[in-house]
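Dear H.,

Thanks for agreeing to be a second pair of eyes. The structure we're designing against is below in token form, covering all 158 positions.
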């Protein structure tokens, strides 16, 4: 019985994606904006995302274009943080990205007081890591020291 159920589940997992792929038409319109439609300034800001650009859905592309438009008005520290986050993001596997999105959405659904508690706890954890590094005489990780600080008055782009 267990083998039968396992075989059925395996078959369903393999059959449905294959059937769905056959149903798709080959004349799918490319998502906009295409990388070549971005301004040179937008391309420069979003360069870490260029290899992934064609795989992004239109809503995500639009979000990143909006961030690129705001980029010149950001403080240098915010710009650096954005570039680092984009570089980190493209290094994640699709599964890791999905998990990060789900965690973010879950956090956003929390009431503001609970969200603040989570943020405070995270900062406390980051500070403890910095203290451990200092006690061990290890060089400080700049990402830890920056993230252990309270957030700026203006939240980073999401």
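And this is the sequence the design step returned. I haven't edited it by hand at all.
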């Amino acid at each position: 019985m267990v083998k039968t159920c396992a075989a059925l589940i395996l078959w369903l997992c393999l059959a449905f994606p294959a059937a769905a792929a056959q149903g798709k038409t080959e004349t799918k319109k490319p998502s906009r904006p295409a990388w070549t439609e971005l301004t040179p300034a937008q391309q420069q800001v979003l360069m870490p995302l260029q290899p992934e650009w064609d795989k992004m859905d239109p809503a995500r592309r639009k979000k990143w274009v909006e961030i690129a438009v705001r980029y010149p008005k950001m403080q240098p520290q915010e710009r650096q943080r954005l570039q680092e986050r984009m570089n980190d993001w493209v290094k994640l596997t699709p599964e890791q990205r999905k998990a990060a999105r789900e965690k973010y959405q879950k956090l956003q659904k929390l009431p503001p007081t609970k969200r603040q508690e989570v943020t405070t706890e995270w900062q406390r954890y980051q500070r403890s890591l910095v203290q451990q590094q200092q006690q061990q005489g290890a060089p400080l990780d700049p990402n830890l020291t920056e993230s252990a600080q309270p957030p700026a008055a203006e939240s980073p782009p999401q």
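Two observations from my side: Residues 110-149 form one domain. The chain has two domains: 32-106, 110-149.

Warmly,
E.
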